[in-house]
Write a structure and sequence with these properties.
Layout lengths: L6 E5 L4 H12 L3 E6 L2 H10 L7 E4 L5 H15 L4 E4 L14 H29 L2 E6 L12 H21 L4 E8 L5 H14 L3 H10 L9 H12 L10 E4 L7
Parallel strand pairs: 1-2, 1-4, 2-3, 4-5, 5-6, 6-7
Helix pairs in contact: 1-8, 3-4, 4-5
Bound molecules: nicotinamide-adenine-dinucleotide.
Length: about 260
């Protein structure tokens, strides 16, 4: 068990990739805190991980930095420390460029960019004094591809790429690694919703659009969150102690173009 005696906080752990990472961390022996918009979603993940009894479920909206700070404090009060922080929480809004309003911009950036940044600093405040930590952020191929119908998403995640490098450089002397995982197009929630919104926007048949978006991938299949979660296990493990500032592609070659 590679994460035994480590305490991990998975933010956005109530569904999708965050849930898959929580399940994988539980199998690797980590003490587990899961945060999501509702405590019920986080609790469901803990139950699936067999940690309903000893895990910590938190309601947290990362658009509100005070909730992030309160969540991290709750983790340290419960477990005495925090070793690993993974932030999977994000939103993707489909808007043609001229339909992006300041409100829609803020709805994306307040979670994906500002929220992600304050998750990193809140975790680092606990990790810096003890000279150990693993911070994992989640980016997307959309930071490097043209995505005119969800440009705010791609741009907000480009901020994550940038923060990951800056934080990695600042905290490397203090035993904290900071890496980002870039999943390819995964099965489940966020992509299903994106397909639905794109089909609505373009007037295309949903099944045909989803099929063509899958067949356009180099691997011709979507990746399972559980496959991507294996990267989060490795990056949090002692084996990856010398790995930092990486953009860890799990995209099945998507960025080849
Ligand atoms: N799905 C994909 O194909 C894909 C591809 C590349 C990158 N990503 C990234 O991977 C991560 C996980 O994606 P997913 O497909 O598992 O998404 P998902 O929508 O299935 O899960 C995201 C979770 O985050 C939570 N969340 C949303 N806003 C929040 C907020 N303000 N505060 C706290 N929690 C919040 C949601 O409730 C949900 O449980 C995201 O960062 C996403 O941008 C996804």
């Amino acid at each position: 068990m590679t994460l035994k005696n480590r305490t991990a906080l998975i933010i956005g752990g109530g569904a999708g990739l965050g849930r898959a990472i929580a399940l994988a961390y539980a199998r690797e022996g980590a003490r587990l805190a899961v945060a999501d918009l509702t405590a019920a979603a986080a609790q469901e993940t803990l139950a699936l991980a067999g940690r309903a009894g000893d895990g910590l479920a938190l309601a947290m909206n990362i658009a509100h930095p005070a909730e992030i700070r309160a969540g991290v404090l709750a983790v340290t009060q419960r477990f005495g420390t925090l070793d690993i922080m993974v932030n999977c929480a994000a939103v993707c809004l489909v808007d043609p460029l001229l339909a992006v309003t300041p409100e829609r911009w803020d709805a994306v950036f307040n979670v994906n960019a500002r929220g992600a940044f304050f998750c990193m600093t809140a975790a680092a405040e606990v990790m810096l004094p003890k000279k150990f930590g693993r911070i994992i952020t989640i980016s997307t191929p959309a930071t490097r591809l043209a995505v005119p119908n969800f440009a705010t998403y791609g741009a907000s995640k480009a901020a994550v790429d940038s923060f990951t490098k800056s934080c990695a450089a600042a905290w490397a002397p203090h035993g904290i690694t900071v890496n980002t995982i870039v999943p390819g197009r995964m099965t489940g929630g966020m992509v299903d919703a994106l397909d639905r919104d794109l089909a609505k926007l373009t007037g295309q048949d949903l099944a045909a659009l989803a099929e063509s978006r899958t067949k356009s991938l180099p691997m011709q299949r979507r990746v399972e969150p559980a496959e991507v979660a294996s990267a989060a296990v490795w990056l949090a493990s002692d084996a990856a102690a010398y790995v930092t500032a990486e953009r860890f592609n799990f995209t099945g070659g998507m960025e080849l173009g």
